[in-house]
Amino acid sequence: MGLAELIFGKRIKLQHDFWGQMLFVGKANKPSPNDYFECRRHFNPSNKQIEIGIDSDSSGPTQIQIDFFNDIETSYDKISKSVIPLIESEFRNWKDDFKISNFNKEFIPVYLKIPRCQDKPIEWEIAFETSHDENHTITLTMHDFEAKEVLIDG
User: Residue 72 belongs to what domain range?
Assistant: First the structure.
């Protein structure tokens, strides 16, 4: 047993049929509402791998979370249209005339945070990297498929 395993416990890895290789972040013997899995998966709208955090206990994600991920992919155009005004407004704090010309080329999704999907509306996050500022990540808090908050971090 290594020192990290002694302190944090044995890391649970799960090979999931849909999500692929997943790593549990939490303690299986001491469940917490903050427990989640980390993984990477192909994201159809960008045709690239995306980092994903999925709120879950050590038993693994649910079918509802898989269905929600599929809904995100299917509704990506609606999501994009919802996030554009918030991103433009935030960027105008630095660049007065900022305008997104081609969202899919200018903003690449890099991270999704999927909740347990028990409460409505479903509150989740999507993060983007952008060609407009390679030193920052833009994270949006969504309620279902409507953008509610934007945070530019870097």
Answer: 3-153
Indicate whether 29 pLDDT > 90. no
Contact 68, 116 (CB under 8 A): no
Return d(Cα 33, Cα 35) in angstroms, integer: 6
What is the pLDDT at residue 8? 52
DSSP for the chain reads: --HHHHHH-PPPEEEETTTEEEEEES-TTS--TT-EEEEEEEETTTTEEEEEEEE--TT---HHHHHHHHHHHHTHHHHHHHHHHHHHHHHTTT-TT---S-HHHHEEEEEEEE----SSSPEEEEEEEETTEEEEEEEEEEETTEEEEEEEE-
**Count of domains forming the chain:** 1
User: What is the model's pLDDT at position 134?
Assistant: 83
pTM of the shown model:
0.90
On the question of pLDDT at 4 being above 90, the answer is no
Tokens 């002694």, residue?
Answer: 6
Q: Is the pLDDT of residue 7 over 80?
A: no
